[in-house]
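Lab notebook, bench 4. The sequencing result for the construct came back, and we need a structural model before the next group meeting so we can plan mutations. Quick request posted to the team channel:

Model the 3D structure of this chain.
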Amino acid sequence: MTSTGTANIGKDSAANRTDPIRSDVIILGAGLIGLTQALALAAHGLRVAVIDRADPEVLKDAKHDGRVSSINSASWNIFEAIGLAEKLEPHGCNIDKILINDSLKPGKVDFIPDEDDGPLGVMIQNNILQRILFEAAAGNGMIDLYMPAQVTEAERGEYQVTVCLDGTMEIGAQLAAPLLIAADGRGSRMRDEAGIIMATWQYDHSAVICTVTHEQPHGNTAYEIFYPSGPFAILPMRDDGSGQHRSAIVWSVPRKDGPALAKINARAFEAELMKKSGGFLGQMKLHSDRATYPLGFHHSDGLVSQRLALVGDAGHGIHPIAGQGLNLGLRDVAALTECVVDGARTGLDLGDAQILARYDRWRGLDNLMMSAATDILTRLFGMPGDAPSAIRRFGMDIVQRTGPLKDRFMAEARGESGDLPKMLMGDLV
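Done. Here's the predicted structure in token form:
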């Protein structure tokens, strides 16, 4: 068997072994959600096998993903609970304020928490978060990483799940566990094989993503400027090593324009950035390569099947207009962990239908409501013309002047609304 070189691989998993290698849970996918799920379950004493087709060196490469994520304050508590917050903090930038504007016209909504409440969230680069999660999983004695490896066959039977691997061992080697968790992204093979129905459509948007430097400090403020062509977000990052002020740009543009904007010369692109931002941070300069991603929506009609649970993008994917995509996945992780651990304490099989039904009820409605809200916002702010703009700004003014309503939106931004799993409050289950 070929291991990652740093993963925990037991002696009983030698290449000539014929019996399945047993774990408490098998997770497909070693991305941000899959690794967080593995670490959360391992923190409760469960043995976890993680399978991914990626080479471990790719996951540890700090340059392979230029995206950034806004981790709201509730989601950040998960990393506190599993002991990673201290390692992540030097790389993150607090979000102390969110400012929303419609096309740089008069009127705005600003969300500013009380000083005692702490930041609204933390901005962190995906590649750094991925590396730290991977290193933590590779060094955890309760987690076995099978990478690079592919599942050639998966059988979800009455009493256990059995998967056959190709990559880390000879063809036909097997893993077995009571529960299979699919964290294998939007194109989840396990979801499709389970026959879980998806609602899906594509937006006429691509996201152009890059990092810029600018003359004025951002004041730990996240700016969201809505244009009919798509939202333009300026997200705070830590100053670089030479003290230059940095922000991440997430710019939704018409799908046909995305590739061109990613390829035009730097000076022309910077000029476009200045037009969209209004120049309030001073001159902007490109500080990274540009990437472009097509944007779409998908939502499953359920998160579970026999001995199978979906987490993160395997079950839902939304427009980045509210920056909540990763946070929804982290809420899945916290809820599923609580359901599984509570079930184990009462003596249930970890793949028992009662455990999975509880998880599906807990997360199904919340995911649906957030998915619907972001879809409505995308369409509402995409309506061109002066009249729709005036209506939007009127609504924003009402939110700005109505304290309880503003507090409700701020709680949503923090991820503190609804029935929260214990890990979103910073506690292990």
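The chain has one domain: 11-199+297-425.
Will bring this to the meeting.
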